[in-house]
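# step 3/5: fold
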Amino acid sequence: MTPSGMVGAPQEGKGQIVFFRPSKFVGGAVGFIVREGQTELGKLRNGNYFVLAVEPGTHQYTVHSEAKDVLTLEVEAGETYYVQGTISMGVFAGHPNLSPSDQAAFDAISRKLKPSKPLD
């Protein structure tokens, strides 16, 4: 568990993924939606995070604007995974990226993060 208690243990028989985005000036106004297939899972805005409980197995998460990024994770029951979202600037819009991360990176900025609002 993180020092601030923001992330608990995964649900019984499931894994969990913590998607987070550090607060940065570049691309700060750009938010993006994390999807698996056609399902919208959560929105990552500057300085936000959300926790997703998932079934064990292979999952593919996508984000896109004028460019698309795909991250594939092999999730095991009882494990917590961390994924950092970032924005790099493109020609016309920000390019969202998803990268594997770890608890130490999340913990280092967790006190500055706010939970993402649920999707409507």
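# step 4/5: annotate
The beta strands are 15-20, 32-36, 39-44, 48-54, 57-64, 68-75, 80-89, 94-101, 114-115.
# step 5/5: archive (pending)
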